[in-house]
Design goal:
It is a single chain. By secondary structure, this protein is of the alpha+beta class. It folds into two domains: 172 residues, no CATH class; 232 residues, Anthranilate synthase. The chain has twelve helices and 24 strands. Strands 1, 2, 3, 4, 6, 9, 10, 11, 12, 13, 14, 20, 23 and 24 form a 14-stranded mixed β-sheet that branches. Strands 5, 7, 8, 15, 16, 17, 18, 19, 21 and 22 form a ten-stranded antiparallel β-sheet that branches. α1 packs antiparallel against α4 and α6 packs across α12. The radius of gyration is 22 Å and the shape is globular. 47% of the residues are buried.
């Protein structure tokens, strides 16, 4: 990526006048027909949602992890496929005009659970995968930065861009404290328990016959929402309910895929790689039973082994915690094992994503056979649920999560998803109860339930 520093260094607190002048000068210096340009300036520190509330109809992205930088985006400057070659080529062609201290530009997106899983309603517009550079990106950590991107041959009108900049700056300086009011939400469609039990029994027969060791079965329900139940309010409730999870949202037209997931797929920062196994679920008060359960332990260990096997070809050092711990969330408990590695040589985060997805936590064992079963039985209904969602930058670093506790909002309805790992000794009623428990994460955020 071609980077150009400011004619002066940004120092002290961000100044509207200084940042505005820098953005205007960079746009005036660009000529018609020039390549992609991304201009980044310091901005006030605010919640990432503050950018989206400046122009809610233009919202395109929210990325809000609990322990690293958050981002939000308005509009779309560029859409890219999810191949690292395309991302590298784009950043090589793009010009980044910014102070040396600013973060590298990022693109955001993900994929469907499997090819073809998001080709029909309600997943219109999402497809098999994409990465997106927003027109406006707000990046906030200890400091905050605002980027404006132009990827067309046309020259933007600087005065129009600066008018939008002024509105955004005002929203960041004075973020609105929003407490969403409760709304009504009622289920209007879902598979009955009998169908679920038959599905679980079919999987168990396959396992006993030696076809699989585990398959993750998923189901969904459709909820009708009261008029005015917007995605930004749902995201605010998820923030309040699940502060230890990664909030994410991707807007495509009138549809929003969003959630608050506890599961990291992979993070790459230079040579350092982090991942985890998160498999095994129970209600509060049942931690001892879960940790003592042979079924839960076996299911969890399958995930640990698969993640280590996927990362081993790329790493010269790789280790997992010797024993799983309990991850406590407001509505459930999970069994968790952190995994970390050191890359043998530079590997783009998108290559690591492809190697890891789907883990046995969302697919099964053996992976190929389990995913084939899922594709035949339910993939057309799964969409982007339990798929990788995240970001990558010009250096090939990035972070992707597994899109759990998630759903799709469009046309006054929400499609809410959850899954459970089926083993040879799985009880259909217990697995159904587990999916119901997981669904409550998003169902409660849809209508403001305090659970």
């Amino acid at each position: 990526m071609r980077s150009h520093g400011a004619a002066f260094a940004f120092e002290g607190l961000p100044s509207r006048e200084t940042s505005r002048a820098f953005l205007g000068q960079a746009l005036e210096a660009r000529t018609t027909g020039a390549g992609p340009i991304i201009v980044t300036v310091p901005a006030p520190v605010a919640p990432p949602d503050a950018l989206l509330r400046a122009f809610p109809s233009e919202a395109s992205l929210l990325w809000d992890p609990p322990q690293s930088a958050a981002s939000s985006g308005l509009g779309t400057a560029k859409m890219l496929p999810t191949e690292e070659e395309a991302v590298i080529r784009f950043f090589d062609q793009a010009e980044h005009v910014a102070d040396a201290a600013s973060p590298l530009p990022r693109v955001f997106g993900g994929t469907s659970f499997a090819p073809g899983a998001a080709i029909r309603h309600p997943w219109d517009g999402f497809g098999d995968g994409f990465l997106m550079l927003p027109k406006w990106t707000y990046h906030v950590d200890e400091r905050a930065w605002l980027s404006f991107a132009v990827c067309t041959s046309e020259q933007p009108v600087a005065a129009d861009v600066l008018d939008v900049f002024d509105t955004i700056w005002g929203s960041l300086e004075r973020p609105i404290g929003v407490i969403p009011s409760p709304v009504s939400a009622r289920r209007i469609e879902e598979a009955d328990r009998g169908a679920w039990s038959r599905q679980v029994e079919r999987i168990r027969r396959k396992i006993r016959a030696g076809a699989f060791e585990k398959v993750v079965a998923a189901r969904h329900c459709v909820v009708e929402l009261e008029t005015g139940a917007g995605s930004l309010d749902v995201l605010k409730r998820l923030e309040q309910r699940f502060p230890g999870c990664t909030r994410f949202a991707l807007w495509r037209g009138e549809a929003t895929f969003l959630g608050a997931t506890p599961e990291l797929l992979v993070s790459r920062r230079g040579p350092s790689v982090l991942s985890e196994a998160l498999a095994g679920t129970t209600a509060h008060g049942e931690a001892a039973r879960m940790m003592a359960s042979a079924k839960e332990r076996e299911e969890h260990q399958l995930v640990v082994q698969a993640v280590l096997k996927a990362l081993e070809p790329f790493c010269d050092a790789l280790r997992s915690a010797p024993d799983p711990s309990v991850r406590e969330l407001p509505n459930v408990l999970h069994m968790q094992t952190p995994i970390e590695g050191h890359l043998r040589e530079p590997v783009h985060v998108l290559k690591l994503v492809r190697a890891l997805h789907p883990t046995p936590a969302v697919g099964g064992v053996p992976t190929e056979e389990a995913v084939l079963w899922i594709n035949e039985q339910e993939a057309l209904a799964r969409g982007w649920y339990s798929a990788p969602v995240g970001w990558t930058d010009a250096a090939g670093d990035g972070e992707f999560v597994v899109a759990l506790r998630s759903g799709l909002l469009r046309d006054g309805k929400a499609w809410v998803y959850a899954g459970a790992g089926i083993m040879a000794d799985s009880d259909p009623d217990a697995e159904y109860a587990e999916t119901e428990l997981k669904m409550q994460a998003l169902l409660g955020a849809l209508h403001g339930d305090s659970r």
